[in-house]
């Protein structure tokens, strides 16, 4: 199967799996469950689930097993977007080309939907038959919790809030995004690998380095798109970073150097996969896909 066909198949599989794993709208509290499903279903490129599947296939994991960690990661990601769009954060009215959850529903329901999605992600990941043994499954739960918490995504968001209007140097910006964006992308790769056969220390280090590069690459490209793309292309309000005086790779480095930074990160990510040969092709194509998002 070529990469576009593989990606489309995984995206469709995950849409079906997420629809099955999320609480149904005919179960109380119906409005909350409706908001949760609205936040997750029918949008997004599913980059994090794709990374789970690519790393999991490299490790020999079955697709039906990979659905679970992939769904858990996507639910954490979706909750973060719901909260990120709230008036107390980025105060955005558009996400994935449709009204944000607090606009479509209300502030309180959006807050609860994000909270519930975070909890549901761990409920899903704690289900039977997710890993080869209980020790590995506990490791997966710990890994996702760390990626989502104060030493990961939430911590990165706090650093981001504290940095508004302040001059940062590139290492400070990188530290912020290793947490805010990169932590969950690294978790996706490592969860996929943990769902399959045990990896040696060298292979684990290579996959983790790939994931670190891919996470930063995703953010650099995001910054470039925020500065260059329009709202229709992004599916969210364009130019928000500049309006809110947020430090970005474009504001710190400039547009051309930011593009060179993206190219360097892509090269580094691909180099880390070379020892895997053909088994690393889906991960390599995903890195190229992240790098090539419309700029």
How many domain modules?
1
Q: What is the CATH architecture assignment? A: Orthogonal Bundle
Rounded to an integer in angstroms, the radius of gyration calculated over CA atoms is 18 Å
Number of helices: 16
Return the CATH topology. Farnesyl Diphosphate Synthase
Strand order, sheet with most strands: 1-2
Main pleated sheet? 2 strands, antiparallel
How would you describe what is shown here?
The longest helix has 28 residues, at 201-228. A two-stranded antiparallel sheet has the order 1-2. By secondary structure, the protein is an all-alpha fold. α10 (182-194) runs antiparallel to α11 (201-228). It has helices at residues 3-21, 30-40, 47-58, 63-84, 101-104, 107-125, 134-148, 153-163, 170-180, 182-194, 201-228, 231-234, 240-243, 249-253, 255-273, 281-291, and strands at residues 94-95, 98-99. The two termini are 27 Å apart. It has one domain: Orthogonal Bundle (Farnesyl Diphosphate Synthase), CATH 1.10.600.10.
Task: Write the SSE topology.
Blueprint: H1 3-21, H2 30-40, H3 47-58, H4 63-84, E1 94-95, E2 98-99, H5 101-104, H6 107-125, H7 134-148, H8 153-163, H9 170-180, H10 182-194, H11 201-228, H12 231-234, H13 240-243, H14 249-253, H15 255-273, H16 281-291
Helix pairs in contact: 1-4, 2-6, 3-4, 3-10, 3-16, 4-6, 4-10, 7-10, 8-9, 10-11, 11-15, 15-16
Task: Describe the structure concisely.
The protein is mostly helical.
């Amino acid at each position: 199967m070529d990469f576009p066909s593989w990606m489309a198949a995984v995206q469709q599989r995950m849409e079906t799996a997420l629809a099955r794993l999320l609480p149904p709208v005919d179960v109380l509290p119906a409005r909350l469950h409706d908001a949760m499903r609205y936040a997750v279903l029918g949008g997004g490129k599913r980059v994090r689930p794709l990374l789970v599947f690519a790393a999991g296939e490299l490790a020999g994991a079955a697709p039906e097993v990979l659905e679970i960690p992939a769904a858990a990661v996507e639910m954490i990601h979706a909750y973060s977007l719901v909260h990120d769009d709230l008036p107390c954060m980025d105060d955005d009215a558009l996400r994935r080309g449709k009204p944000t959850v607090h606009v479509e529903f209300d502030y309180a329901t959006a807050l609860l939907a994000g909270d519930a999605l975070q909890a549901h992600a761990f409920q899903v990941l704690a289900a039977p038959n997710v890993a080869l043994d209980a020790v590995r499954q506990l490791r997966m739960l710990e890994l996702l919790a760390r990626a989502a918490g104060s030493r990961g995504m939430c911590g990165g968001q706090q650093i981001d809030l504290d940095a508004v209007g302040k001059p940062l140097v590139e290492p400070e910006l990188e530290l912020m995004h290793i947490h805010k964006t990169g932590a969950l992308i690294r978790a996706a790769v490592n969860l996929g690998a943990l769902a399959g056969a045990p990896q040696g220390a060298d292979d684990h280090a290579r996959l983790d380095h790939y994931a670190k590069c891919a996470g930063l690459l995703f953010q650099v490209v995001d910054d470039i798109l925020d500065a260059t793309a329009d709202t229709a292309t992004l599916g969210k309000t364009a130019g928000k970073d500049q309006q809110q005086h947020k430090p970005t790779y474009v504001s710190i480095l400039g547009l051309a150097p930011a593009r060179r930074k993206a190219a360097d990160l892509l090269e580094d990510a691909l180099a880390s996969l070379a020892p895997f040969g053909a088994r690393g092709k889906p991960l390599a194509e995903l890195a190229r896909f992240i790098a090539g998002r419309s700029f």
